[in-house]
Amino acid sequence: MSLADDMHDLGRKAREASRVLLQTPTAQKDRALLAAAAAIRARADSILAANRRDMEEASAADLSEALLDRLLLNPARVEAMAKGVETVARLPDPVGHRLDAWDVAANGLHIEKLAVPLGVIAVIYESRPNVTADAGALCLKSGNAAILRGGSESFHSSQAILHALHEGLRDAGLPEDAIQLVPTTDREAVGLLLGMTEFVDVVVPRGGVSLNERVRQESRVPTLLHLAGNCHTYIHAAADATTAVAVTHNAKLRRTGVCGATESILIDRAVLKTIGAAVVKDLLDNGCELRGDAEVQKLDARIKQAHEEDWSTEYLASIVSVKMVGGIDEALAHIARYGSHHTDAIITEDKDAAQRFTAAVDSAIVLVNASTQFADGGEFGFGAEIGIATGRLHARGPVGLKQLVTYKYVLTTARDGGAIRAG
Amino acid sequence: MSLADDMHDLGRKAREASRVLLQTPTAQKDRALLAAAAAIRARADSILAANRRDMEEASAADLSEALLDRLLLNPARVEAMAKGVETVARLPDPVGHRLDAWDVAANGLHIEKLAVPLGVIAVIYESRPNVTADAGALCLKSGNAAILRGGSESFHSSQAILHALHEGLRDAGLPEDAIQLVPTTDREAVGLLLGMTEFVDVVVPRGGVSLNERVRQESRVPTLLHLAGNCHTYIHAAADATTAVAVTHNAKLRRTGVCGATESILIDRAVLKTIGAAVVKDLLDNGCELRGDAEVQKLDARIKQAHEEDWSTEYLASIVSVKMVGGIDEALAHIARYGSHHTDAIITEDKDAAQRFTAAVDSAIVLVNASTQFADGGEFGFGAEIGIATGRLHARGPVGLKQLVTYKYVLTTARDGGAIRAG
Fold first, then answer.
1. A43: which of A17, B118, B171, B355 is 20 to 30 A away, CA to CA?
2. Which pLDDT tens digit goes with each residue over B332-357?
3. Quick check: A245 contacting B, CB < 8 Å?
4. Beta carbons of A362 and B19 less than 8 Å apart
5. Using CA atoms, how far apart are residues A141 and B369, in angstroms rounded to an integer?
């Protein structure tokens, strides 16, 4: 069989499994998840052996230390993976809820809007093998069949994890095709997945900018993309100094590689030499590289000069651009021009300014006196997330179980004799 | 300037207008709509003159009678257009509602989920000039900037209608760029629109299968597509005869060209010779062409033979395929195989069968004892709709004002001292 035939077969089987999952009761899905978690623990040795094989091939291929670390599994990480699957089992089922209901007086219809699974979700990710378990569990809990395409480096690890997930599915009497792994590292398989509109309902890429851009350019299947996180923290004239320093420190330095990390700090002219100076000193003293405009540079000799491209750069590193703004209007205009509609924060004690900022900034997440690093499904209380969406359709911000469902309308007659004929 | 430059300019202006609309109060939007409706009436003569020009060119180009009728405006249709815009003004504003709100105990965050506009919506439609007013009004009311691309046949009519809409926007102090029309009939402009991810947030095609397929193939911008409406009516063993005949008649014949029209009737073996015969006779006597399987053909000599392709054909005409099924399982399997996930109905007095059908059929709309032609925003009580979506992300079924918004999260601290740092 050709690769295209293989992928078609995979898609067809996913669609068939999705028809079963559509109606699978919560208890059965949870049983599969708990059995899968147990199987991950029981199969830890073979998962670790498969991972050693991946690690050896990756070392031979001279991959970076960072990538090797993402690829590495150890007993603690395997246990965390099993715990993650158990966490998903304990989360509420997003399927079946009545989202809305109303009667239409004019025709006597009774309409219910019910949450139903999306169908088949393809998740394309890079080297972390734990995504195989995470994404598989989230799709299963939300009643969706999953087609997983992991990074080629983690191929053997992912296969071993998949065996555990299948054990869980079998234990609960569910089809193994509910969670499938693309059985090849051929890059062409991704292209085929992105065109399988008949079998795939949504594509979720979990990886860097280049993967997301490829998916945006090529996919015929609707996507939940994560494009950029150029997040801002604006220190308003009425900011509290202690809050400003604490929030900015966390927003920039807690973890520099996450999409919710602040990449640009805007400081109001009125507080530049007071609060601004304190914020800047704290970051510099903690080893952060600052790139400022001329006014900001005057605060400290360690501040480098910012260039135009800095305002739109997502560093994902211990670097931040810093700009003085004349007031909230200039801050809003700057964010509108350079921001990525992901996450932006204002530090202020002025309720009107906070209200103006949260209304005007057109981002998935806007915060008042809190760190942009709260842009995370865990912090939102979602329990688990498959990623963060930067698009505007369907899901915006963290994508948890509730975002992995769609809805259907069920129409019945609200009263005898009404509503059987459209008028 | 090149066409690409023109389109870029159009997109940039739409994005700028969308930033204004994001925060425009309901009263101001409604004022613009009411003024636009008045302007449509006041400018009726020039709209009709522009339409005569379109009609002359269309007649010279030998367009079909059906197309000419879709293109034609007359005083009654202009009045209906003005009334339609007034209807949208009276509908509730979908923007600003608090869709959800919760506190996260673990970190002290207070999270609000608020309805906000999508941004810039491009609507691509065919010959009906009234879509210019309808789509422009719906986008404006939902706080979105609109880029409208009408059919080349209706170019002058649409321009004249646009002048009226602009008069309304000016009257309310809103930017004219809130509603723009692609100022050329060049087909390449559509291709450019579909690639303008920087400026266009959603593409809504309103037209036939070929337009929707082109958009699906080419668009880099997320879309709300309408692909197919192969709708089924299943007459269950426990159907009521009168209901079955009345509903099927309406579902097939009320209007045959709408996407919610029934294209396949499934008749349970148990009632084939009783209710099935009555349903078939009613349709045949009313001039409908029936294509049946061997068992169905035995009911009446006028029934033609159905071929495999009939089960997946959307006739949009006074033709229907009819199949006998052994029971609900076979009906469900047939719909899963041939259906288009649009709208399907069961006729039954058996509550369990109804429940099984509505749970198992994976369509946007499922009905019990009611006509598939209820698949319509008007019948849902939406007041107005921009179309019906057959995709699964964001909007499924009728797309009214509530489906033309997305959401943002606003995060504040729920209690003193909490929640400024992500943990």
1. A17
2. 999 999 999 999 999 999 999 999 99
3. no
4. yes
5. 32
